[in-house]
Amino acid sequence: MNGRKTLVEEGTQFKGSLTSDCPIEVKGRVEGDLTAPALSVSTSGAVHGKVKVAEMKSQGELAGEFDADLVQLSGTVKDNTVIRAKSLEVKLAPANGKMQVVFGECELEVGSEQPAKEVAKEVAKEKTPSARPPADAAPPTETNGSPSVRPPPAT
Amino acid sequence: MPELTADVVLRKIKSGEKVERADLRGLVMPKAMLEGVSFRRCDLDGANFEGARLAKAIFKNASLREAFLAGADLREANLENADLEGANLQGANLVGANLNRANLEGANLQGADLGGARLTHAQLDSAKLGGANLVAAQLSHADLSDADLSTAKLDEADLTSAILTDANLEEASLVGARLRDAKLDGVNVKNANLTNADAPGLQPGGDATGRIKRYFGKGDVLRNAALEFDAGASVEIESLFEQCTIALGEGTELVVGKSGLLSGCQIRGAGKITIHGKFVERETPGIVGVTQLVVSAGGSMVGAVEQPAENTRFAFEPGCYLRMKIQPKKERPSEKTGKGGRQR
Description:
By secondary structure, chain A is mostly beta strands. Chain A is built from 1 helix and 12 strands.
């Protein structure tokens, strides 16, 4: 892209549909649909709408529907937001530090379908009906209200 | 180029001349016979003494940054206050050596023999000491933060007031070791032998906070169970849990290992969850009130998370699989009346 980018500067509000063949950087506020190879939302930026990009890096505020291959997230995700991505990265905030991401009521769909099928397969594989106790049977490892304790295996 | 070549250094040594304070950077003397020679205050950065015989040699206040000393015989050598940052001492024999106040930051001491060595106030942060012999070594006030001491032998070692923050002591032997006043935050003592060790707050199979790990091994199956883990407990699951409810006390750490699969389960309470394996909820939300949720690369989480009032700290690594709904805290009738809200 030769360093070209579309910039929505701080203090700017954009409403409508924006399609670009170069990366979009949002420092201001966008309400509407965005399509671009990449989207970067800075701490002062906000994007509310439908977004379709290959890469998205956000430190600002997101609301709406976001489809991307790679997502790096910090900042705020507002209510009623859906993020679909092949890969999502959210770093862990320090215990007493500022939240990395504050999530409102939202949905995350990350990764391909394969693991879900694997989960179902593993559950089916590990289920052995003959060994299964009745639903009201006592848990097999309970003693004095606390679970059994074994040392980790030697490796 | 060093000020003196290897030949000149050898000639000087043979003739009884001193090589102290010399600029010997990059000197190449592998397998050289240099027992008892004094390199005091010499600049030996990047020098190669691989397999050299340096017993009782004097390197006091010398600079040996990035020096190559693998397999060298440094028995009873004096390396006090020497700068050995990033040096390679793999398999070196340092029995009885004086390394007091030496800088060994990031040095490679894997498999080195440091039996009875003096390392008080030594800087060993991020040093690689895996499999090293440190039996009866004096390590009081040494900085071993982030050091790898896995499988190292530290029997009878003096680690009084040492800094072991985030050090790895997995499978290390610490029989009779002294760890009084040592800083032990985040130290890993998994499978370490702490028999007769003077280590207040440290327990074998636990961590620096003294908590015992509850471990559910691979191949085990737990169904329809209701489990409660007390505040501060540490739990690792490599098993299959089906239709289980798990209550976490405040600060309890629950790790679903790579082989762990929680199918149709629900987890509640102000704990911290790390998922390397898989979690699939039964009732929604599958996870309620946790303070921290990490899904690592290769981890899988299918279900809803109800955050506590102060929000959950999330972390997701690239490569994780999520079909996740995140919800705000919901007020429940039991919480309004103050009954049964707390899981312990």
